[in-house]
Each structure stands twice: as structure tokens, then as C-alpha cells.
Specification:
- This protein is 7% helix and 33% strand.
- Strand 8 and strand 9 form a beta hairpin.
- The chain is mainly beta.
- The strands form four sheets. The protein has a four-stranded antiparallel β-sheet with strand order 4-10-6-7. A four-stranded antiparallel β-sheet has the order 8-9-5-12, covered by helices on one side. Strands 1-2 form a two-stranded antiparallel sheet.
Length: 257
Amino acid sequence: QTIVRDQFKGVCVKVSDSRNLAKSLPYFKLDGSGDYGGAGILVYYHKDSTPNDVRTERYFFSGDNCGFFNNVNRDWSHSPVSKLINSTAANDSVIAIQNLPGPCLDVMVTGIKSLPSGVINKAELQLALLPWYEDSRFAAVNRLFPFTVANGSYPAGVTAGTKSAAIDVFSGSNPFGNMINSEVQTLNRNGTNVKAYTINIPREVMASWKAGNDTLHLRLEGTQLLVGAYRSVLGGGNHTNVNYRAKLFVVYSSLIK
């Protein structure tokens, strides 16, 4: 056994050509139930004394005795999303997002200090799915998780570039609560039904306004456990079709003296 461990380092499984586009992402279970429900190695051998007698031994993956890791190499040069990743535009018309380790989404909300004085009851970010990009092989991301990215002055005392969960995200078994949502809803925009992620972050916007911070930097990531298997294509802030543009709707209350 020592000789085998020294000489046999493991198995690498990968696609034959990573440049193929519009293909589904394959995956397999390592420790499924039953002999044929998990990964393993079937060894064929024979004894020196009986060279024509083929024997087999089966070695299946066991989490207690085996190790594994995923090696993800991201190469956007052959992908249609390459232009979006390398875009220098301040406001893209099309947005692509995928479960990690795929691309996430950064949203810059400007003009926070110009909001009227009062209580923000609702601050809903709406990101519309572009239906002509839908593909049955790639389901849309189920939910978007909102993070705040520090800019050096907001949040106070946090190093620039540090990512933390938005204030509206609750701790515990249900971090989204009944308010933040972050799932796809059907909205009616100018008589057109549009599927859009609705992300309600009033506490985060209120905290930014109170601190005198004019630009709120948000980062949105997918929440599925299956790595990279879900993706969404969304309308940006300057999409040519106004029904699919990214928008932030703020509802507030002011005290009347």
C-alpha cells in the first residue's frame, strides 16, 4: 500500500476542450449511495502465476479516507461575456451574473445625499431578466445576495474594498427575512410583464444617507450551492428598452410640522 500511495497521486477529471461555448456544466457525485452512485476506480489486474485470469478490485470514494479539490480556471477570452467583463463603460446596458466562481455584479448607487430628509420605508433595487437570453440548459440564479463594499469612508472604520453583508440581511436560518426578498418577481412596466430580481435595502440606503455617503457600492452574488451552474443576463442602467433598465425605487416618509 505504501508503494501505491507513493506512485499514485490521484485522478484528474476535466473537459477535453474548454473553448466549446454554450455547453452545459457537467458535475458528478463523489460519495453517492450504492456501488454505482458514487465516484471510484475499478482496477484490473492478474497474478504472475495466472496471466490470463483477469481480476478486479473496486475502490470507491469515501469522505473519511479520500480527499478532493476543485481547480477552477477562468478564461473569459473565448466567452461571449468577455466584452462585458472587460467593459470600461460606467453604466453597461447588459449585465451577466453567474454563481461563484463566475462573475458577480457591482452596482454603484449615486446621489444618496440628495434624498429628502425623512424615513426610508422602502429602497428596492430592480434588475430585469432579458428574456431573449433565456436558455433551458442554464437556469436563472435563484437569488441574489447583497453585500456592501467599503469605499474608505463608508462604512466608517472599514478598509476600502472590504465586503460585508448588507445591513438588511438578517443573521440566523433565514438571512433574507420577509423583506429583502432578492428573488425573481413578475413586474408590470408600462403594460409589459417583466421578470426581475427585487432587492429591498432600506436600512442600507438610510445608513448611507445618515453618514453623508453619496455613493453606495453594492456587490450581488448568486446563492445556489451548485458551483457556476446558474446564470442570469440582466438589463443595465442604460438599456435601450426602458422596461428592462435597472432601477432603484425609494419610498420615504417626511414629518410635517
